[in-house]
Amino acid sequence: MMHCRRNAETHEKAGVAISFDDHFINEWFALRPMFQKYNAKVTFFVTCPDSLTQDEIKKLRLLQSDGHEIGFHGTIHGKSTELIAAGPENYKKIELTPGLSYMAKAGFNPTSYAHPGGNHNDQVDSVLLASGFKILRDVAISRRKMMGFQMYALAPRLMPWIYYSFDNQQVVDALLIDEDAGLTEPEMMEALEKAKSTNKALMLFGHEPLYGKPQNGEYGFNVPFLEKILKEADRKKLKFYTMSELPEEK
Ligand SMILES: [Zn+2]
């Protein structure tokens, strides 16, 4: 009986944690059959919840009952570092309390938070953690363009900070999969393989589901590209984690 290497070689936690930001409720809901096809569970980070319609609330509840998580993405999608400069109470009064109250009225009690615009500092994080959020998600980008020139490119498999190591970390970065991030399919397949081989969870996020190139200020990800990721994750038997599940997994 060989038990010595068992822990080192296990892949049972390997997975992917995918989230979506902002307020594309109808567009996200349209992906429901695709999520069902691959048994995928994801997290939706909702901002500006004061404008949620009854129909949108119904759709979010259905997604939640499917096992997806409804997280919070701010009341006004403001710049938290500027808001908190006037004090933590000011930040809470403007960005947290009103939105959380709208969410509660709609039947949601979010336990995960995505920083609007990826903007935050240690003080913002400590207020959010003290407010009861289990995990705070920031933004990681593998490619940046400036004046049309690519300034740097880093393969996602070489970005250790986009992998969750199940060390109960509460402040994490997810890789942007929107069109303008310029990710390729082979890079994503390698990134998923790394999650599998290292027994970690790859964290990804996007905005609006798009079916062609972004137009007129649209920002979002290509739906067939997301489907390739879901399909490969399913084929590799990777676990789908919602964001709040990451720090809970033992
Ligand atoms: Zn946002």
Automatic annotation (TrEMBL):
GO BP annotations listed: carbohydrate metabolic process
NodB homology domain: residues covered: 10-134
Domain of life: Bacteria
Molecular-function GO terms, alphabetical: hydrolase activity, acting on carbon-nitrogen (but not peptide) bonds
The protein's name: Polysaccharide deacetylase family protein
Organism listed in the record: Dyadobacter chenwenxiniae
